[in-house]
Structure formats: structure tokens, C-alpha cells
Amino acid sequence: MDDRRVDDILGGFxxxxxxALPALAGAAILTGTLLSTPAEAAGGVTIYRVWFDSPxxxxxxxxxxxxxxxxxxxxxxxxxSLKGWVLKDVSNHRYVFKNIKIGAGKYIKVHTGKGxxxxxxxxxxxxxxxxxxxxxxxxxxxxxxSKVDTCSWTTRDPSDKYC
Length: 163
Fold this sequence. Notes:
The protein folds into 2 domains: 39 residues; 119 residues, Lamin Tail domain (Immunoglobulin-like, Sandwich), CATH 2.60.40. It has 2 helices and 11 strands; from the N terminus they run αβαββββββββββ. The N and C termini lie far apart (61 Å). Helix content is 28%, strand content 30%. Strand 4 and strand 5 form a beta hairpin. It has a 5-stranded mixed beta sheet. It is of the alpha+beta class.
């Protein structure tokens, strides 16, 4: 193959790359701009720990019910609103977050029983246990249904699980 034929082949390839570069650069800039804030917010919330086996006997007392909880952590540098987000188990027991914000670097525990909501604790208001001791999965989703995080356990875990 002579040099002119190689230049013709490479020239066409090179020309296509040069034509595509502005579009690729624009997409990279747009993606970086669009994802920097929402991705940080969504990616910054995790299920940190689940205490699924309430200490002591399962008496269904409010104290016992509040002994099982899911701890959510905000690892981002901004407060995040959890309003409308859902925490659920495999049996689809659902807790929908009220108008709750979790501060930057902060935690919030979602207790099963009744109580008064604070910045560090919120309550599902249930009269029965949610999290199975033998095995279960806690799933956290945004209000639009997109999955944020999950945490699963089995009987080989003691009474709680760091996720």
C-alpha cells in the first residue's frame, strides 16, 4: 500500500474524530455540570446500620419496637431532603419520610415504634416489628422510585448489621 492510500484512510478517520470532538467535549462539560450537584446529593445518602433484633424479649412494647431501627447517613457536604423517600423491607412494609432533612455528615435513625421526631430520630409509628431477625433487606428509594441503597442480613449476623 502506498503512502497516499494510508494518508487517505487515516485522513478520513482523523477528520471524523476532529468533527466529533466538539460534541464530545460539550457532552463531557454538560455531564459534569448536571451530575455534580444531584449525584452528590443522591450518592451521599446511605443505609449505615440496621439494628433488626430488638434487645431483650420481643414484647411489642413501644420501647421494644423502638429498639429496632435503621440508621441513615448523609456523607455529602450539604443537607439533603428525604421528603417522600421510602424505606421498606422485603415484605413491602413501607415508611415514607415526612418533611425531613438530614444534615451534612449527619445520621438519622428510623425507629419502628412511636415517638417524637427530631433531627436525629424519626418514628414509623408501628405496633408490630418490621425487620425480620432471620433475614431481610432494607431498601431506601427516592420519591420517584429510584433505588438509593440496600442492606441485607441473615441469621449469621448477630442482632445488627453495618452496611
